[in-house]
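Two folds, back to back.
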Amino acid sequence: AEFGKQWYQRRVRGELLFTLSKDSEIGNSLGGCILFEETLFQNASDGTPMVKLLQDQGIIPGIKVDKGLAPLYGTDDETVTQGLDGLADRCKKYKEAGAQFAKWRAVLKIGENRPSELAIQENAVTLARYASICQSQGLVPIVEPEILCDGTHTLIQCKKVTERVLSATYKACVDHNVYLEGSLLKPNMVTPGMQCTERATPEEIGAATVIALQRSVPPAVVGVTFLSGGQSEEDATRNLNAINQYQDPGRKPWKLSFSYGRALQASVLKAWQGKKENVPAAQVELKKRAFANHQAALGQYAGDVTGASGSDSLFVPNHQY
């Protein structure tokens, strides 16, 4: 019964997000949507496939294909991502169901002796193998090596670790013959740890993030879609805006955009509260936040969008999903 209730709530939430009126032009702000396997094959209450609801909005369906984190034994509480077994067959099925891209999340941590070289290399190779398998089945892979924001590390420490992780990831991708022009990167922004007392401005975060990318991401990669990583909605938008406003002509060859979960949905869910009568208000929140991030991806966000959860912290320690 509990599973049935959860299934119903997830379907209702999906309908809330996917059933805006066509004149909402949400597809102008959101280019794609990453679905869980359950949602990819799910129908709305009127029988319309969820995938079609997205396509009708001009939004490309994607699919989360990893199977979660597993301990990387011999390390200090580090992890590697599971799900390579049978991935080619699953990707074929997802493609037939309408998915056009996939994503796989690896997780690394900053701390004493972390990330270890073993964790960096194991996750880099796993990401590269995932990407090559996806491309063999016609899916565009989003490569996501997330460095968690948990900890007291400084902006500079995060920048150095980000450069190490991304450099190893793309070395592995080249070794595995990944077609970089047919892939996307979903990294963390370079920020101080959540428990660090030395905070950074959006301009400092923007500069550190772009420099880390310049030092480690090949220009052949089509685009970079940042994760929000526990930042508040407003912080995630302001920092994306600063990244795009950072002036270094000719050295930002990628599209720098967003792939947010919590920082796109928090105000939506707060407005909705699981109540049918609140769906219109929740959809207004979605349109507002999507448009704000669309503006930030152009470096044109004026900071004038308020939301139900705009400045609330969305940090979850050791975040897993």
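---
second:
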Amino acid sequence: MIASQLLPCCIYRSVFNFKHVKLASQRGQFMKMAGAFAQYERPRPSSSMSGFRECFAKAKHIVVLTGAGVSAESGVPTFRGAGGFWRQFQAQDLATPESFARNPSLVWEFYHYRREVMLSKLPNKAHTAIAECETRLATQNRRVVVITQNIDELHARAGSKNIIELHGNLFKTRCTTCGDVKNNKDSPICAALGGKGAPDPSAEDARIPEKDLPRCKKNDCGGLLRPHVIWFGEGLDQSVLQQTFEELDECDLCLVVGTSSVVYPAAMFAPQVAARGVPVAEFNLETTPATFSFGFHFEGPAGTNLPEALAPHETESNQGS
């Protein structure tokens, strides 16, 4: 992927209109922008499911923003926060270009372990509820789109079709030489990584020679492959962001599911949607910095609340073909 296809992670849109793109040089500018919402007196968000269901019944274009909390309900480790370690590392220690340049063997062990773990995980009731809702509403000429920060493919495995992956995909690789991106679900991804990647803190670094790590097979390129994911310090793909902004501009209902609302620029998406008067509902285990920007907040597991929230509404029998 060439540099011109990337925008810095500190990109954001103007508060009331996604169509004006601005670049911020520091994360602090995000915080100023978030603080702008504080000048508006906002009531405590409603926890009325019937109230949300009324909005749901009217919506024609629904965006579902999802984060790590949804995957966590499937048992997917996050490698962040207390106890979130792989060996003695957290994700931000290894998921960087600098770490990969310094020790590609160690970084590939980490991602090999994550890939192998994901092969044993299944979509949960939240994933299924979103996918079934998309399929059902499509017959009524209503659109449901998932915009996810997750890289685990669980939405796709649940049956969702309209998916925008902000941070890439664990089961795609990108060549560091020619930039070729390919789907890759090989297990192991290369022979040298077979049996490697144990998360035990006492496990030794395999120190696999670079020539034996995953290599590009396009036209005998042979370049070193890396996971096709966004690492800390890298930019988001411009085309992915453009798709995201277009969906957010058009949506008339937004759900925020299992996200902490602290990772930018995604943390600003839902508050900006809410600022233009669109109903936004947060489904999370706890409140977040953005909670009071939203009209609804439902506390608890997404796998418990989403099936009820997205179930067929009584008015649906009169819609569609």
